[in-house]
Amino acid sequence: MPMRANTRWMSGVKSQAIEQEPDLVPVPNDAAIVTLVNSDLPAIYRLGIVGAGQIARMTHQAAIKLGITPRLLAENLDDSAALAAPDPVYGHPDSLASFAESCEVVTFEHERLDLGLIASLEQAGNKIRPGAKVIRASFDKLHQRRILQNRGFLVPAFCDLRGPDDLFDFASTTGWPIVIKSVRAGMPGERSIWVVESPAEGMRVLSENGNRGLMAENHQAIIKELVVLVVRRPGGNARCYPVAEVLQADGACQEIRAPAAIGPRVATEAKEMALRLAEELDAVGVLAVELFLTTEGLVVNELAARPHNAGHLTIEGAPTSQFENHVRAVLDLPLGPTWALAPAIVTVNVIGGYDGTDPANHLAEALAVEGAHIHLYDKRPQPGRKLGHVTAIGDDLEQARDMARRAEAALLGRRPW
Amino acid sequence: MPMRANTRWMSGVKSQAIEQEPDLVPVPNDAAIVTLVNSDLPAIYRLGIVGAGQIARMTHQAAIKLGITPRLLAENLDDSAALAAPDPVYGHPDSLASFAESCEVVTFEHERLDLGLIASLEQAGNKIRPGAKVIRASFDKLHQRRILQNRGFLVPAFCDLRGPDDLFDFASTTGWPIVIKSVRAGMPGERSIWVVESPAEGMRVLSENGNRGLMAENHQAIIKELVVLVVRRPGGNARCYPVAEVLQADGACQEIRAPAAIGPRVATEAKEMALRLAEELDAVGVLAVELFLTTEGLVVNELAARPHNAGHLTIEGAPTSQFENHVRAVLDLPLGPTWALAPAIVTVNVIGGYDGTDPANHLAEALAVEGAHIHLYDKRPQPGRKLGHVTAIGDDLEQARDMARRAEAALLGRRPW
C-alpha cells in the first residue's frame, strides 16, 4: 500500500502510530503517484529531538515550515513541545537508544545526557548532532574550561572543587569574591552558580551542594555579557548571527538585545572566536558561545550546543531563525542568511512570578501592545520558570525595549514600571 | 488532580486523549500551583479548526506561537495539518456537531460545509467564526453575487444556469465569451471555472457538468487581479493588509505580489470596499476579497472567509501574519499590525508537476537559494496540487521575484527559465 515514508512515524514506539492503519489512506487514482512510494522522501528527514521544552517547541515549528515533522523524546506529558507535536515518545533521555533507531538524525535541546550512551550510538553509526565531543564540552564545564584553555582561548582562572582545601587554595591566589559553579548543566530552574564574598559563604555553598561536582572561578569584572550564535554544518560551512547582549537580573537572563552595543573590533573578535571554537569542537547545529567583555578582553564564559535563549530574537529579527538554521545544519542542508533585520531587536523573557500569574490569562492585554511579538510556551506557571518571551523590533533600542517590556508586564499582570 | 485546562484535549473523541492518563503528570511540590488548576486558561482558547490542509497547518502554527494548541477536524490521516498537529480528530465536516462540543470557538479552513448544520450550531450558542452568513456568502457564489449587488458593489453581470436556454438568453445580452462557474466551492484541485467562446463550447461545459449548480458571468476585461485581506474581530474592529496582486497561469494562482503595483487611489478604494464588505457581512477572522481591476473600475470577483493563498506572504512580509491575525480575530483578541515590511514581497506557489517530482527531495537545492523562504506542506505530490510556496522579500520586485522563482524551480527539479 503506497504511503510516503514520513507521513507518520511508524516505529510503533507508541500505540497510536499503529492505530493509524495505512490501509485507510485513500489511494489517489492517478497512476503517477504509485511510482513515488517509499523512496520519495530522503530518510535523512527522519529527525528526532531529545527534550521537549520551549527550545524543542520552536525547533519543531521551524521544521514543520520546511515540511519536516520531527519526532520528540519527551520526559513529561505536559512538556511544552510535547503539547504541540504529533505522537511524541515519552521516555527518559536514557531511552535514547531505542528512540534513535527510528530516526536518521538525532539532535538535542539540552545537555543532560548520558555521554557514554551518546558516544556508543555514534560509534554504531547513528547520526548524533551535535556529537559526543561537543555535548561533553557543553555539559561538563570543567572539561569545557580545560579544552578552551588548551586551545588558547582566554578563560577565567578556575579549579576543581573537591573540598574546602581546594577553595582556600584557589582564594589565596585570586582573592574574594569567587564564583562557584556546578560542573554539570542542571535542570531548568535549578541554581548552578553562586558568587561568594567570603570563606564562610563559600563553606556554606560547599556544604549545601556537596553532593554535586563543583568548580571555582575567578570573579570577572564584567563590562557586558555577550552571546554569539554560530550555526555550522557537518562539512564545516558556518555562519554567525550578530553578537547579542544579555542582561541578567536575579540570576536569570531577563533581556537580550541585538546587535550588541559594542564596537566593530570587539564584534569581529567575538565572532571570530565563536567560529574558531565551533571549528575546533567540530560542532554541528547551533553553538551558543557566551562571552564576558572584561577589561582584560573577551573571556569565554560558557558554551551551549543547541539553540539558545539569546537567539529567540532571530525568529523575527533575522531572515532565518536560529531554529530553522539548527534544523538545516543537523540535516546537512544549506544554511540561511543570519543578518539583523533591524538596528534594534530586543527580547524580554516572561518569567513566572511568585503570585502564580499565568501569562495565558493576560494574552489580550499583551497583544494590545501594538507590534510586540508574543510567544507563549504553554507551560504551567511556577516562580522563576520561563513561560514565554516577547520580541520587539525597531530603529531605536529604547523604543523596542519599551514595547517588549510593556507586553511582558501585561502578560504578568503588572503595570510597566 | 491538578492539570491546566488545555494541556491536552480531554474530550475523549480520540482514544489517545484517554491514554494520556492525567494521574501520570508529575505534581510540582509548589503549593502556589494548586490554586491555578482548571480555571487558569480562558476556555475561549479551546479553538477548533475544521479542515487540515495547508491553511489549517499554518493557522495551527500561528496559534502554537501564542501558546494555544488548536484541535483539528481532519478528513484524512495524511492531511497536511493533521501530520503536524497533536491528536487531530478524524471525521467528515458533517461530524462538526460533536467536534464543536469540545471547543469554545470553531473556525474553518474551507467552505465545503453544511450550512444548515452551522446555522443550527450557532443558534445553539456555539461560537462559529466566521458564522453561517459569511460562510454562505463565500460558499454559494450565486448568493454572493446577489448580496453584493443588493449592497451596491460592482459585480459582473451574472445569471443562474439551469439549462441551455439560460445560457443563450444571457449571451444575447452580453455576447461571447462567457464565464461559466460552478456555484459552490469545489474540492481543492477541482475545476470550477470555464471561459467559453461559443455556444458549442458552452453546451459542452453544460453537458459535462450538468450535475452541479452552474452560473454564467459576463467576461471581464481584466487589467489586474487584486486581493485585499481584511481581518475583523467580533466587535467590528478591522484591519486591511496591503493590496496584493495575483498572477494566474494554467487556471491556477502561480504568483502573488505585494504591495500591488497600483496607484494610491485604486489601493484606497480596494481597501475601503473590502472593509465595507466585511462590515456588511459581519465577517469575523480573515475575509479575502478578490477583485478585478477593469476599465470599468474595481469589480468584486470572489470572497473567501478564511486565510487565503494571497496572504501567505504575510508570514515574512508583515509584522503579524494573516494566520496569527485570524487566530486573534476568532478568539476576539487584539489584532496585530498589517503593514508591509518591504517594498517588494513575492510568493510563488509550488505546484505539483506531471513528472511527480516531490519538492521534499529537492529541499537542499532550494535552500541554497540565499534568502528565499521555503514552505513545504508535507503533501503527497499530484499534478496541479499545491505542495508548498516560496516567499522572497526585497527592495526590488524583479529581484524578489527572481529569487522566489529560482527556489520554486529548484523544488520542482527544473532549471529556472
CATH architecture of the largest domain in chain A: 2-Layer Sandwich
Write out the CATH superfamily name of the largest domain in chain A.
ATP-grasp fold, B domain
Strand segment count of chain A: 18
Mean pLDDT of chain A: 87
Quaternary state of this entry equals homodimer
- CATH class (first level) name of the largest domain in chain A: Alpha Beta
Distance between the termini of chain A: 62 Å
Q: Roughly how many Å is the radius of gyration of chain A? A: 22 Å
Percent of residues in β-strands of chain A: 15-25%
Shape of chain A: globular
Number of helices of chain A: 14
Most extensive contact? A-B, 69 and 69 residues
**Content-based structural category of chain A:** alpha+beta
Which percent range fits the helix content of chain A? 25-40%
> How many structural units, i.e. domains of chain A?
3
Structural overview:
With 417 residues, chain A is of the alpha+beta class. Chain A folds into three domains: 15-128, Rossmann fold, CATH 3.40.50; 157-218, ATP-grasp fold, A domain (Dna Ligase, domain 1, 2-Layer Sandwich); 222-411, D-amino Acid Aminotransferase, Chain A, domain 1, CATH 3.30.470.20. Helices cover 30% and strands 24% of the residues of chain A. The first copy, chain A, is built from 14 helices and 18 strands. Chain A has helices spanning 15-19, 31-34, 54-65, 96-101, 115-123, 132-139, 141-150, 164-174, 199-208, 264-281, 314-317, 322-330, 363-367, 397-411, and strands at residues 47-50, 71-74, 89-90, 105-108, 127-128, 158-161, 178-182, 193-196, 214-218, 222-232, 238-240, 244-249, 252-258, 285-294, 297-304, 344-351, 373-376, 386-394. In chain A, the strands form three sheets. In chain A, strands 10, 11, 12, 13, 14, 15, 16, 17 and 18 form a nine-stranded antiparallel beta sheet that branches. The longest helix of chain A is centred in the middle third of the chain and has 18 residues, at 264-281. The N and C termini of chain A lie far apart (62 Å). Mean pLDDT of chain A is 87; it is low at 1-8 and 10-41. At the A-B interface, helix 1, helix 3, helix 13 and strand 17 of A face helix 1, helix 3, helix 13 and strand 17 of B.
